[in-house]
Amino acid sequence: MGRGWLIVVAALALALAGCSAAQVFEKMPREMGGLSSDAPKAPDKPYLYPAVHDMPGPRAVKTLSDDEQMKLEKDLLSARNSQEQAVKADADAQQANQNAAQGGKR
Known about the structure:
Blueprint: H1 2-20, H2 24-27, H3 66-105
């Protein structure tokens, strides 16, 4: 029974030591299980993690009211409609030019 506990404790110690020895493998020669020579170098400074619990401050710009949002939507719709009309007029003009060019070749 004493020998079984010794094996369990040794296995647990090795497992825990393996978790903490990740940086040891970087310094070991490649032949012994270390990183290859062309592996990227670890950063000198460890990465900083974002502060996930810090809330941003209040916004400097207030949100739009319902009337302001409706006005903005109407302005965007009118801009889209005018662009669609301009594209249609341009396509019609190109078609007319192609028809005139084909009519002159006949």
